[in-house]
């Protein structure tokens, strides 16, 4: 039997609510068996009301439903209420124009208005990678890095919490390859997951056999990045002085910041310029041993 020692674990208990049931605003989050309501906040996906033929406001709004729920009941709402979100007008416009399945929205049902209908009160929003779809059978998780000391391998370094539950799974790795289209920076995308700034749709699967145990991997079919994606300050790095015939080369870190990586040059570079899938924009910089042009495809919603 494998033994895992958890070092520095802290448990919280207050008024019968566990740490896992509190969100970033310290609001109580609805549990797995619960449903949408006006008193507890939920993580929801949505679809536009496109096919019913009746007059506004009875038709033309949104159908929202909880994720990871035993019940898949949808609730009709007029639209998004951003009054409690703190989101900029630009982000609000992006959310309002998004297609169904592109977002995870955290919030609660608003109170019934004089017309007999209500909106969905938004607290936070996450946007999925363009051109990528999650499966109906996927589970939604939030991941955190954990300081764990082990005496046997494999040793987990992360913990995945199933949204709307207190169910936690220790992980050895996160695989975002299925959620990343051509030339997407998987270093950045993985970091967004492991630093808790993204939500993941996918499944926990068995990975490599290590020692007497098997690694646990969260295989992501879609990654939802929190809006706005706040790139940490890149600062003002020290730029090296390069000898004659060489130039400064650059590399992107996990926050998409450009950092000097030394000097390079003198090699042959390809003149072919790649193209990005719809929903992405081509980024370029000078890098690598021979100071050739490097490329990445960033989601357009990060740049607009």
TrEMBL record:
The keyword Metal-binding does not apply. Residues 1-20 form the signal peptide. Coiled coil: none annotated. InterPro entries: DDB_G0275255-like, DUF6748. Pfam families: DUF6748 (PF20533). The keyword Transcription regulation does not apply. Residues 43-228 form the DUF6748 domain. Keywords: Signal. PANTHER family: DUF6748 DOMAIN-CONTAINING PROTEIN, DUF6748 DOMAIN-CONTAINING PROTEIN-RELATED. This is DUF6748 domain-containing protein. It comes from Archangium gephyra.
